[in-house]
Amino acid sequence: MAPLEHAVSCQNVTVRFVTEERAVTALEDVSFTVPAGGFLTLLGPSGCGKSTLLRVVADLITPSSGTVEVLGKTAEQARLDRSLGFVFQDAALLPWRTALENVALPLEVGGGLKPDSRFTSPRDLLALVGLSGWEQSYPHQLSGGMRQRVAIARALLGGPRLLLMDEPFGALDEMTRDRLNEELRRIWAETGTSILFVTHSVYEAAYLGEQVLVLSPNPGRVVQQVTVDLPRERSLALRDTPHFVEIAAALRAMLGKVTP
Amino acid sequence: MSQSVNPSASSALSGLSADEMAFAQARQKARLRRRIMPVLGVASVLLLWAALVYWLKVPPFIAPSPQMVAVTLWEKSGLLWTNLVPTMIESVAGFLLGNLAAIVIATVFVHKKTLEEAFFPVVVVINTIPVVAKAPILVLLLGNGMEPKIAIAALICFFPTLVNMVRGLESVNPQAMELMRVLSASKREVFFKLRLPHSLPYLFSALKIAASTAVIGAIVGEWIGSTLGIGALIIQATYAFDSALLYATVIVGSCFSMSFFLLISLLERLALRQTALPNS
Lengths: 260, 280
Ligand SMILES: Nc1ncnc2c1ncn2[C@@H]1O[C@H](COP(=O)(O)OP(=O)(O)O)[C@@H](O)[C@H]1O
Ligand SMILES: [Mg+2]
Description:
By secondary structure, chain A is an alpha/beta fold. Helices cover 33% and strands 26% of the residues of chain A.
């Protein structure tokens, strides 16, 4: 396979929603790229179109104009090829299935996995996200953080080359969120999957991302795509270093300019 | 219980088990209480009833004594049984037919939005008409025999189940729907893997209602045009001023209705054993 330059490439993407009451421009002329194997965080206040942008990449929304290329294909083809994993804010686990059965869902629908897939074992993936021994638990028996781990394992089944995550840790307490942030960096390094991660937390954006795409609201526009110059190996202690604080401050300043 | 080697752990364990023992005892007591109290309640009501009938010298054509009812239940058990069988057949057949139709139509509604938009409001309105008001209308429409009673029981089950089933099939988590699309799931897979299991708690709460209303439907149908069945026997006993038979019939009908309800509750427990019930 020819080496891929971009995992995602969006050019001049505009999304307009027309509802009965009003027409909203959720995204206007948004262009950005995620390098192959990269980790890009999308940062912006709520309502600036982050989820919409993620859904455009996942082929859940068709943009009003602009082009979207995912893993060198159209977004639709990438979806049909099972090249995408999606992690939702509320985990979206099926309550009548055990953790293991939830992770195995992608095997049972949409024709199952492609023949050359990596990560075909739900059990191994639960181990990867630190949930060995919880295979037979039902979602209501798991904590919020554990449910998100199950959702991440499910998204990784089949070894997608791009992982899309929509504020997956937004509803968790800070300590759980910190731990999952650390583990997500590890999972990213171990799997080599490109990640596009939505957050409205400056710290999360800076800590996780190799790059941060800062968005402004009304309508959603790109403020800047910033490269985070931090080492590849990151521990939580990094967040107390002056350098990290500087980066976070710079991101906050960019947001400050756009949010009154 | 396994014996622990670690002394501190074992002492912690025995401390816990003493607590647990007390808890288990308390629970058993509470359970016994929960069993005994209703029995005492029923017994005292029966006693009061017997006492009132005796002291006030209520004539047997107005209200029987509990002893008379008990004797009637025993002596006329053949007659009661002969009349219970048709009511059972009508209500169970009606239950099955009505609910099956409701499930099928709910499935169609979910896949054909235009049909739902046109007919679902009609269904919701019809659903608000009380059973006792619907039944005579249906008797007039359908006439005598067992089939019309089945139809009444079926129609009465149909509407609540349809309403609940549509709600259950449609109220799936929108993010789970998006997940299915990311996975390129077919409509069929979305239905069987997501909508149907999600709708089961909704379906069962409707089925439990239907278990009682199907019996009511059959009985009300028999009131109006029948010579056999619990409903017919109720009417005959009333006109004959045979209050003991009337009460006995009502008791037999209620017992059947209750057993039917319990059966469905049992099935619900089996089907939803593993799920945290979202709406019950
Ligand atoms: N399906 C939709 N229909 C109409 N408007 C929508 C829809 N989805 C999002 N929007 C609007 O688009 C804007 C961006 O929404 P969203 O992408 O959810 O923002 P974010 O994820 O950054 O909070 C909001 O104003 C929202 O109301
Ligand atoms: Mg959002």
